[in-house]
Specification:
This protein is of the alpha+beta class and about 140 residues long. Helices cover about 50% and strands about 20% of the residues. It folds into 2 domains: about 55 residues, no CATH class; about 80 residues, no CATH class. β4 and β5 form a beta hairpin.
Length: about 140
């Protein structure tokens, strides 16, 4: 493998044939590795907020509403997420209510929480578990790629 040093001279960058006594070779190696380290640090800096958000999801102890999940997953709105959930067999729409499918509940991805409405009626609200949010995030990433 060959490379060029700062003077434009061809140098052998094969580790078996490195001349560590050559200052120009050492300078080139140090610059190359410094660039790699800088790129890696930049990637980590960009990934840190996502990693922190991911940790919050995984370690969450409560359930997450579809509205909250849509925001966390940077979707346009909850309606789009419901549309995706129906198309991908996570929920069924029955009598104007999106209900998680039984197999999704059994897998521990979603639950149904009962909520009281101001008018006294009881409302069944679909909620994600932390495991469900993680699985959803992975499936969304897979369908986008």
């Amino acid at each position: 493998m060959t490379a060029h040093n700062m003077a434009g001279e061809t140098v052998n960058s094969n580790p078996d044939h490195l001349n560590l006594d050559d200052p120009s070779m050492l300078r080139e190696l140090l610059l190359r590795y410094a660039n790699r380290v800088q790129k890696t640090e930049d990637q980590l800096t960009r990934a840190l907020p996502k990693a922190e958000a991911y940790d919050q999801i995984i370690h969450a102890t409560g359930y997450i509403s579809v509205d909250e999940a849509a925001k966390m997953l940077e979707m346009k709105n909850a309606r789009n997420l419901y549309r995706w959930l129906r198309a991908n067999m996570w929920v069924d729409k029955r009598v104007e209510i999106n209900t998680p499918r039984q197999e999704i509940i059994e897998l521990g991805l979603m639950v149904i929480r009962l909520a009281n409405l101001p008018n006294g009626r009881i409302y069944a609200q679909p909620m994600f578990t932390p495991i469900g949010i993680d699985a959803l995030r992975k499936e969304l990433a897979h369908t986008k790629s």
